[in-house]
Amino acid sequence: MTASTTKALVVTSSILGSHGQSLALAEHFKTLAASRGDIQVTERDLVALDLPHLGAEELASWQVEPTARNDEQRQLATRSEALIEELRAHDVLVLAVPLYNLGIPSQLKAWFDRILRAGETFRYTEAGPQGLVEGKRAVILAARGGQYAGTALDSQTPHLKAMLGLIGVTEVDVVFAEGLAMGGDHRERALQEARQAIGGLIERL
């Protein structure tokens, strides 16, 4: 590893295993990154991690000073703190995201619930929230059965950008692979265009 190495955190959230097209896009990113030699990739599989929904006890554990936490609070707070530390340790965040019922997977929401923390990754000011995660960029690899980008039904993209922007990640590139359930030719063309777009992004990292 050299001083110019770019560290990329690839976060996946597909429940379909090897059949997930968002995972296929993530694999393509990883393959191209490996061919560069100066991009170090860490993968975080949120389905395997199996985070529970955020509950009141875990939320409360964040409000207790670390030295004052009991064993249960310490264990609960560690979930969030480890994920935030992992995020901060990387230069590029790559989110491979399927579209489930017009939204993000619940596994990905559970991850965001741990990294969007007031006082840690953003703070409230008189001028509004201020992100505290600086100097990073994000790539969204969006795989969808239908065609939604640029329409009112695409609530996923602005939601992801808003959550990233809350913590200070405002440089966001989106690669869409859409219409993947609309037939063979359309599917293959969409995937090929997405792979080409990923290649272009890799060159700019």
Question: Can you give a write-up of this model?
Answer:
This protein is an alpha/beta fold. The protein has one domain (6-204): 3-Layer(aba) Sandwich (Rossmann fold). It is built from seven helices and seven strands, in the order E-H-E-H-H-H-E-H-E-E-E-H-E-H. The chain has helices at residues 21-36, 46-49, 56-61, 71-88, 106-115, 156-166, 184-204; strands at residues 6-12, 39-45, 92-98, 122-125, 128-131, 137-143, 171-177. The strands form two sheets. The chain has a five-stranded parallel sheet with strand order 2-1-3-6-7, with helices on both faces. The protein has a two-stranded antiparallel sheet with strand order 4-5. Strand 6 (137-143), helix 6 and strand 7 form a beta-alpha-beta unit. Helix 1 (21-36) packs parallel to helix 7 (184-204) and helix 4 packs across helix 5 (106-115). The longest helix is centred in the last third of the chain and has 21 residues, at 184-204. The chain is globular, with a radius of gyration of 18 Å. The chain starts with 5 loop residues before the first strand and ends with a helix. Residues 7-198 form the Flavodoxin-like fold domain. FMN binds at residue 14. It catalyses: 2 a quinone + NADH + H(+) = 2 a 1,4-benzosemiquinone + NAD(+); N,N-dimethyl-1,4-phenylenediamine + anthranilate + 2 NAD(+) = 2-(4-dimethylaminophenyl)diazenylbenzoate + 2 NADH + 2 H(+). Keywords: Flavoprotein, FMN, NAD, Oxidoreductase.
